[in-house]
Design goal:
heterodimer; A: alpha+beta; 3-stranded antiparallel beta sheet; 3 strands; about 50% helix; about 10% strand; B: alpha+beta; Alpha-Beta Plaits; 2 helices; globular
Chain lengths: ~150, ~70
């Protein structure tokens, strides 16, 4: 593969969300010419065309490998951010409400926040009460020796 | 005239319009939306030496705006 050869990649929309693909492409704009298009008329898959700029230090193959790594990373970030969206909104909202002072606390903003928090906790279920790794057990209970087996000094 | 077809589901019209506005001193632009695409026509590129790179640089700029304006 030559240094300035274009590389084409078809990315499965089910694995790589559009937002993750665009973020990844934006990271590669300084050293490459990037163009995005649909992989087909009946699909949401995206075709990425990367052409290294003159004087780019990496070969097309190296760029492809780095691009694919960055894409996986950005897809994960996007998925996690989508999953935590409600919690993030709740934290920001609560921070803003409580920074407005006590006058607002008694008003409708606090009532909205309480309503939202109840809704959020109801949606989360009681999973948070589970302790499969035994983290909530006090150290003394966990390390308790049977009677009569006390270590002599 | 050079032409670029930006897919409407990936690129957005706001980014394309902003890029045209920023690049308007370097060439003459025309655009229209058709069948889910944003078709951009480029004519009279002022700097002849940049002609080969112009379309690619413009496409890159549009993509950077899509990332920034989302």
């Amino acid at each position: 593969m030559g240094k300035n050869t274009s590389i084409e990649m078809k990315l499965d929309a089910a694995c790589y969300p559009k937002e993750a693909v665009i973020s990844t492409c934006c990271q590669f704009l300084a050293d490459n010419y990037v163009f995005l298009e649909k992989a087909g008329s009946a699909t949401d898959d995206i075709k990425v065309t990367l052409t290294p700029k003159e004087g780019a230090g990496r070969s097309a193959r190296q760029i492809k490998e780095v691009f694919q790594n960055a894409l996986v990373s950005n897809a994960l970030r996007y998925n996690v951010s989508q999953k935590n969206k409600d919690l993030r909104d709740y934290i920001i909202k609560s921070a803003l409400v409580f920074s407005q002072g006590s006058a607002v606390k008694s008003g409708s903003a606090l009532a909205d926040l309480e309503k939202d928090s109840k809704k959020y906790l109801a949606a989360q279920g009681d999973d948070w009460k589970d302790d499969p790794l035994g983290i909530a057990i006090p150290w003394e209970e966990k390390k308790k020796r049977p009677a009569g087996k006390r270590k002599k000094c | 005239m050079l032409a670029i077809n930006f897919d409407g589901s990936i690129y957005n019209i706001k980014a394309v319009k902003k890029a045209i506005s920023d690049y308007r001193g370097l060439a003459d632009f025309s655009w229209k939306e058709k069948k889910g695409c944003i078709a951009v026509g480029i004519d009279n590129i002022r700097d002849k030496e940049l002609k080969a790179l112009f379309v690619r640089e413009f496409s890159n700029y549009v993509l950077s705006l899509v990332g920034a304006l989302k």
